[in-house]
Amino acid sequence: METKRQIHSSLKVLLVSDIEKAKKFYADILGCEVTDWWAIRDGFSGLAIKLLQASDPKEVRPNPPAAGEKQGVDLYCYIEDWNSLDELYHEFKEKGAQIAIKPWVDENNGPWKEFAVKDLDGYCIAFGGTDGF
């Protein structure tokens, strides 16, 4: 018996220190459609975030690095090919995004290519994938 697909997508919820500045960043720098509830790019199965105003800036806590890593990651976006990945990197860089991890290739896994940006609160959003394999 075939199992019915029940979950279409998921999204990350981020507490931010200044909701209006966060909305502007996600719209202007990351190219998201921003509403009172969401920041999305390429639909809810693409980059999808719910931004919420923190009651205290101390509540904004990006992930620390994992064991053996230099940079924590709060959200990971899978990209289907390296041309799209490179286009995103250049778009974000041209718009002034803070690059947390410059593009690099892990030859042992895939090979896998990725980069990451940080938002205004220090949340790290990584983008990566194989080259259409």
TrEMBL record:
<feature type="domain" description="VOC">
    <location>
        <begin position="6"/>
        <end position="130"/>
    </location>
</feature>
<dbReference type="InterPro" id="IPR004360">
    <property type="entry name" value="Glyas_Fos-R_dOase_dom"/>
</dbReference>
<dbReference type="InterPro" id="IPR037523">
    <property type="entry name" value="VOC_core"/>
</dbReference>
<dbReference type="InterPro" id="IPR029068">
    <property type="entry name" value="Glyas_Bleomycin-R_OHBP_Dase"/>
</dbReference>
<dbReference type="Pfam" id="PF00903">
    <property type="entry name" value="Glyoxalase"/>
</dbReference>
<protein>
    <recommendedName>
        <fullName>VOC domain-containing protein</fullName>
    </recommendedName>
</protein>
